[in-house]
């Protein structure tokens, strides 16, 4: 804050603070990788990237005011009174200004080392350049040392060097004006209501900043001007969000802890929580003012503190049932805001949806826990009401589970399961598996190889419908898909609910040949497009049947592929006499013992869990569309591009 208060120009934040790690190019080609897609959400993410840079200046104590303006042509202007992006020549690229390096190079930034910023939302050095690459026009003005500089860009390319365009005797800071490129975002437009909401929440997250909002576009519901400044922080925010809903505590349990004071490490956490019977619970978490809608370690630490505190309080109050409370019970009816500031946070992906920094869990838990214990002890009326409410939640949850378990068997009968399903006998879902197998003959061996108690089989006849490219009416009436959906118990389309799944693991078991791979691909496409939560919650697996069996006397070894077979042939398998090699043409060829040992027995088999690359969720969708979609030319392009890759490798 010192330089802001003294009005002196900071001297140690210049071009040398900006490090370069890599060049810029692929952003326009693969925007999904950087901003999670090209839809409306991704478009609004551009504003967040630029605004976060101004917030970082504010949190670091160099800016006190940020202005955000939506112009009539849907350009965005974001202005702060911070130090201004450095404009002096960059030490590594002497013919370019630091400004140009920042805006035209991926991984250029001042936040890698923690010297120019202590706890920043920015860290990858990517944000500003990504916005630039995806804007058909971007103008950056910097007021530094009483002079005003400007550089203009289009689609990531500078239209000229940085130029001095006048004096700025009473101003300092950065102004970024950009217009998102329609070539990338099509007809998506900024929505005043969405911008207004996210800007307002930013102001709540840092009480040291004032954010002014202005919009030349009037959507009829969002104010066209507003000033946000919330000295009351998250507690006010929560009370405002909950409005008139009745709550179990009169005032939220809220606080701020400086990690420096408590743990001698930079950073802090601020939080507010209350419970209400009036609505489902929620948690909104932030790290360095960046929203983390998928939670992460800070949320985990927060809930751990609340859970342990609540159970300990229950014990003190001799309420034995408090031990039943789980994290799920806390979140039903619990409405929480958690905002932490830490040094060098690690997020998952450039859109920073989830915090991954491990230490954050401990720091937040440690900071919140003491306060919570004190708060509960000081207000026994609220504490008792919350405890009773949570115990009730826990009991309800347990009752529901019991009902579900006892119902499973009868539901199984009522469900009208497909005739060809070979179900398992277990009454509960726990530990059960459904093998989707290719063809009836494979089904025969699998039936003998399975564990009747926990392993069920669904043989599929031939290939299932390719759901990409099929009309949804066709999906609903397809026999194989219907059988599969019924066996899973989850319902299709709007009726789909992953909680109804009848088995723990769904395992695709197809032959280790091209046809088998195609069937597996069709099934995965079906799950990805129609039952995505099954993948997200980790229920979908691929079995890995072997391709070879080597026999030497009484010794037997299975090999997954050619390479493994050759390695064994070189090394020997430790039996006597000649080594016999048999190649399984399909699962149906394996006898039950082979199939059990290699592919089905949980103790000896190998399984691959199907996951979606978290860093590139958009990419997975693109790839599925390309490979399985209606357009053969896309498939052709992909094969061409990748075939070339193989050739290059061969050279
Ligand atoms: N408004 C600003 N005021 C001062 N410096 C800024 C401003 N905006 C950007 N910078 C400087 O430019 C650098 C690069 O910004 P950019 O948005 O590309 O990446 P980042 O914020 O470091 O990381 P991330 O990619 O995670 O957002 C920042 O690290 C900071 O040094």
UniProtKB/TrEMBL annotation:
Q: What InterPro entries does this protein map onto?
A: DNA_gyrase_B_C, HATPase_C_sf, HATPase_dom, Ribosomal_Su5_D2-typ_SF, Ribsml_uS5_D2-typ_fold_subgr, Topo_IIA, Topo_IIA-like_dom_sf, Topo_IIA_B_C
In this chain the Toprim domain maps to 432-546
**PROSITE patterns assigned to the protein according to its UniProt record, in alphabetical order:** TOPOISOMERASE_II, TOPRIM
An example of a Gene Ontology BP annotation on this entry?
chromosome segregation
Q: Where is this site: Interaction with DNA?
A: 466, 518, 635
Q: Which cofactor does it need?
A: Mg(2+)
One Pfam family of this protein, by short name? DNA_gyraseB
**EC number(s) per UniProt?**
5.6.2.2
Q: List positions binding ATP.
A: 13, 53, 80, 122-128, 352
A GO cellular component term found in this entry reads: chromosome
Enzyme class, top EC level, equals isomerase
Q: Which CDD domains does the UniProt record give?
A: HATPase_GyrB-like, TopoII_Trans_DNA_gyrase
Q: Which GO terms describe its molecular function?
A: ATP binding; DNA binding; DNA topoisomerase type II (double strand cut, ATP-hydrolyzing) activity; metal ion binding
Against Gene3D superfamilies, the record matches this protein to: 3.30.230.10, 3.40.50.670, Histidine kinase-like ATPase, C-terminal domain
**Which keywords describe this protein according to UniProt?**
ATP-binding, DNA-binding, Isomerase, Magnesium, Metal-binding, Nucleotide-binding, Topoisomerase
Q: Its catalytic activity?
A: ATP-dependent breakage, passage and rejoining of double-stranded DNA
Protein family (similarity comment): Belongs to the type II topoisomerase family. ParE type 1 subfamily. Belongs to the type II topoisomerase GyrB family.
Q: How is the subunit organization of this protein annotated in UniProt?
A: Heterotetramer composed of ParC and ParE.
Q: What is the name attached to this protein's record?
A: DNA topoisomerase 4 subunit B
């Amino acid at each position: 804050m010192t330089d802001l208060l003294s009005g002196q120009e900071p001297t140690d934040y210049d071009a040398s603070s900006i490090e370069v790690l890599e060049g810029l190019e692929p952003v326009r080609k693969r925007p999904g990788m950087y901003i999670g897609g090209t839809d409306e959400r991704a478009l609004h993410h551009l504003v967040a990237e630029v605004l976060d840079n101004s917030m970082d200046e504010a949190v670091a104590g160099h800016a006190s005011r940020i202005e955000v303006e939506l112009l009539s042509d849907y350009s965005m202007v974001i202005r702060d009174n911070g130090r201004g992006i450095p404009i002096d020549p960059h030490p590594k690229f002497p013919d370019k200004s630091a400004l140009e390096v920042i805006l035209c190079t991926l991984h250029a930034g001042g936040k890698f080392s923690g010297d120019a910023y202590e706890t920043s939302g920015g860290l990858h050095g990517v944000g500003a350049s990504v916005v630039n690459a995806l804007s058909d026009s971007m103008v950056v003005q910097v007021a530094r040392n009483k002079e005003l500089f400007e550089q203009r860009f289009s689609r990531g390319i500078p239209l000229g060097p940085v130029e001095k365009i006048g004096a700025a005797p009473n101003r300092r800071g950065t102004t970024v004006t950009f217009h998102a490129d329609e070539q990338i975002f099509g007809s998506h437009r900024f929505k005043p209501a969405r911008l207004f909401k996210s800007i307002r929440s930013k102001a709540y997250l840092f009480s040291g900043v004032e954010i002014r909002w202005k919009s030349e576009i009037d959507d009829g519901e969002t104010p066209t001007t507003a000033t946000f400044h919330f000295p009351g922080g998250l507690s006010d925010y929560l009370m405002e969000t909950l409005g008139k809903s009745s709550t179990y505590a009169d005032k939220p349990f809220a606080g701020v802890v400086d990690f420096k004071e408590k743990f001698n490490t930079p950073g802090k956490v601020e939080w507010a929580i209350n419970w209400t019977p009036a609505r489902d619970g929620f948690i909104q978490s932030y790290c360095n003012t960046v929203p983390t809608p998928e939670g992460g370690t800070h949320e985990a630490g927060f809930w751990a503190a609340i859970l342990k505190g609540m159970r300990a309080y229950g014990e003190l109050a001799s309420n034995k049932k408090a031990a039943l409370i789980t994290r799920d019970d806390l979140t039903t009816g619990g409405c929480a805001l958690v905002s932490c500031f830490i040094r060098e946070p690690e997020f998952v992906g450039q859109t920073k949806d989830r915090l991954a920094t491990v230490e954050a869990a401990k720091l937040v838990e440690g900071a919140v826990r003491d306060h919570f214990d004190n708060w509960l002890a000081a207000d026994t009326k609220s504490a008792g009401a919350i405890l009773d409410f949570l115990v009730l939640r826990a009991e309800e949850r347990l009752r529901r589970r019991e009902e579900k378990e006892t119902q499973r068997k009868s539901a199984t009968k009522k469900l009208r399961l497909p005739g060809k399903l070979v179900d398992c006998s277990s009454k509960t879902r726990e530990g059960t598996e459904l093998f989707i197998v290719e063809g009836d003959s494979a089904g025969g061996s699998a039936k003998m190889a399975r564990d009747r108690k926990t392993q069920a089989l669904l043989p599929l006849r031939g290939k299932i419908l390719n759901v990409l490219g099929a009309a949804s009416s066709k999906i609903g009436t397809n026999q194989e898909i219907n059988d599969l959906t019924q066996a899973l118990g989850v319902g299709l389309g709007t009726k789909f609910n992953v909680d109804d799944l009848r088995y723990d693991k769904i395992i695709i078991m197809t032959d280790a040949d091209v046809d088998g791979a195609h069937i597996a691909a069709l099934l995965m496409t079906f799950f990805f497009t129609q039952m995505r939560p099954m993948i997200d919650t980790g229920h979908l697996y691929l079995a890995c049947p072997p391709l070879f069996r080597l026999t030497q006397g009484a010794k037997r070894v299975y090999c997954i592929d050619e390479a493994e077979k050759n390695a064994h042939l070189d090394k020997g398998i430790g039996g006597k006499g000649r080594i016999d090699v048999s190649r399984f043409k399909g699962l149906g060829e394996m006898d039950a013992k082979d199939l059990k040992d290699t592919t089905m027995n949980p103790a000896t088999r190998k399984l691959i869990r199907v996951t979606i690359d978290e860093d590139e969720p958009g990419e997975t969708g693109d790839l599925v569309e390309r490979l399985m979609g209606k357009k053969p030319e896309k498939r052709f392009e992909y094969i061409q591009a990748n075939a070339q890759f193989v050739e290059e490798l061969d050279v």
